Amino acid sequence: MSSTADTTTVVDFERPAPELIARLAALPAANIGDAMERLGVADSAIQAIWPGARLAGPAFTVWVAAGDNQGIHASLAAASPGDVVVVSGGGDTSRALLGELIGERAISAGLAGFALDGAARDAEVLGEIGLPVFAKATSPAGPYKNGPFRIAVPIAFGGVPVLPGDIIVGDSDGVVVVPRGRADEIAAAAEAVFADEAERRARIIGDRAANS
Questions:
Q1: Which of 161, 175, 182, 199 lies closest to 63, judged by CA?
Q2: What are phi and psi for residue 123, nearest 5 degrees?
Q3: Cα separation, 137 vs 93, whole angstroms
Q4: 29, 35, 169, 201 — which has fewest CB within 10 A?
């Protein structure tokens, strides 16, 4: 979709079932990454900009010019409640792509949050209002608003390909991208990884207690 498209209309693409998203949301991103053989893990520089932020939902993709957020404004009208707006910003950190005002609008639109291959600002306020934002950096510098942009197209995000409707999961370790077509398989594998690690940890704790 081009920057001249009518962005007042909701963009439609296949989204995973909410139950599947909930299964993945309940798991650590690290376990999901392990279940994908360490593929699908975004650049480790992309982190939560406030402590404790967690993110899970279908990807609404946005491709913007470096330091320009016109496409993010368009996404607020085009994305559906529960979507994670995933922004390919070329890794540019010279200007923040969003801050508290876009954050407030995103909450009003029911969006799950943002994942930015770029910078954000107003981290403290975004934490106070509870909007999860994962970004490569923070910067006080504001964005350009000139375009061009594309929405709901395949993008590159932190070295990982993302299609609209892929599932994004973010926690204190970073962000993983679960391909929509394999999400059920990956969720089952990640649940197995989680159970195995929990059992091994319990065994280690038990051995330590027995030897103390």
A1: 161
A2: -60, -45
A3: 6
A4: 201
